[in-house]
Amino acid sequence: MLQSKFEQDKKRIQQLRAQRKFKPY
């Protein structure tokens, strides 16, 4: 449900941050 999507989003954001060195929000 929503939690599943949230977890996936979190993992994707972490990967994107590591790849693009996003700003530490």
Plain-language structure description:
This protein is mainly α and 25 residues long. It has one helix at 2-20. The longest helix has 19 residues, at 2-20. The radius of gyration is 10 Å and the shape is elongated. Residues 2-25 form the Ribosomal RNA-processing protein 7 C-terminal domain. Residues 1-25 are annotated as: Disordered.
Provide the descriptors you would attach to this structure in a database record.
mainly alpha
Distance between the termini: 25 Å
- The helix tally amounts to 1
* Low-confidence runs: none
Q: What do the pLDDT scores average to?
A: 80
Helix content: over 70%
Order of helices and strands: H
Biggest sheet character:
none
Strand proportion? under 5%
Biased composition (Basic and acidic residues): 1-12
InterPro entries: RRP7_C
Protein name: Ribosomal RNA-processing protein 7 C-terminal domain-containing protein
Domain Ribosomal RNA-processing protein 7 C-terminal: 2-25
List strands and helices in order, with pairings:
Layout: H1 2-20
Gist of the model:
With 25 residues, the protein is an all-alpha fold. Helices cover 76% and strands 0% of the residues.
